[in-house]
Amino acid sequence: MKTLPSADTHLTESDAHEIFGWILDGETSDEEIGRFLVEMSARSETSEEIAGAARALRERLIPIDAPDGTVDCCGTGGDGHHTLNVSTAVSLLVAASGVPVAKHGNRAASSKSGAADTLEALGLDMEAAGRTAEKTLNELGICFLFAKNHHPAMGRIQPIRQKLGMRTIFNLMGPLSNPAGVTRQLIGIARPAYVPIYAAAKAKLGTERTFIASGDEGLDELSLAGGNELADVAGNDFEMRRVVAVQANLPHAPVEAIRGGDPAHNAKALEALLMGAPGPYRDAVLFNTAATLIVAGKTSDWTEGAEMGAEAIDSGRAKQLLADWIALAK
């Protein structure tokens, strides 16, 4: 077994790539991994380390074929706010707006209900959704890429993450390692000051266009509560800007207004959303839908993007899409 170095010293991208190869290939002990992850998180990961680690994970994933223009929207998790599943709902609205979505996610590692938990509570068979991912993506424009099905190397890592119960570099690696090879994304992270660091990692890996976003209160998605740090990444470069809900013609609301619960609670809220229920949850989903439609190239205007998302709900298309997905993923 290999001994991991002290994480007090920053790694080069090359060293991170090698060391995370050891970790993913089972060449180190669980205790060593836990210690290393905690130390790295305590002093904050660098863009070089994130990029190198993501490359190691990408090299070990099981890919799927995806239509041109496929996008993903997800948060890194670990923000501690335990909100309703915003990016899961965004995926349905974006797909119902004509943009294919390869939703990459997992069960909760440090929250009460991850995307997989909530979708399962809604009636989506996770195992079947994995088997039929390419089919549902091509026929319906949406799929769920259950991380455990596409990242077998993560099998021994997930129990370690759950035992630690805190965000680690693996929260950051996941969104950068979508098995559909998406080149357009909305990624929410839980640390506003960390947006440019994460954006630099994404730029090292390359992208057509990706938004990296964080609410000022540390929300791992665009927040209605106040301002948001946003990095607009294109190619191997990025620009920083500030974004607020009013740009999408949406009202402000405190984070508490979208507080979630267990999978059953979150699933009930998502069902109500798709039925047209108004309120902060709908507004938060529309804000993030607008961002995803912008990176997808469907619109360049925040208000228009939110309106497109609202129309996907109010027309019943998003609700029908979920029903069709559940029926096809058998």
Question: What share of the residues lie within helices?
Answer: 40-55%
* Strand numbers in spatial order across the main sheet: 1-4-5-6-7
**What ranges have pLDDT less than 50 throughout 5 or more consecutive residues?**
none
| Arithmetic mean pLDDT | 94
Which structural class matches the secondary elements? Answer: alpha/beta
What can be said about the biggest beta sheet?
5 strands, mixed
Oligomer: single chain
Shape: globular
Terminal Cα span: 41 Å
Tell me the number of helical segments per DSSP (H or I, 4 or more residues long): 15
What integer value in Å does the Rg equal? 18 Å
Strand content: 5-15%
Write the layout of secondary structure elements.
Blueprint: H1 13-24, H2 30-43, H3 47-58, E1 71-75, H4 86-96, E2 101-105, H5 115-121, H6 126-131, H7 133-140, E3 142-146, H8 147-150, H9 157-164, H10 169-173, E4 184-188, H11 195-205, E5 207-215, E6 227-235, E7 237-244, H12 263-274, H13 280-295, H14 302-314, H15 317-328
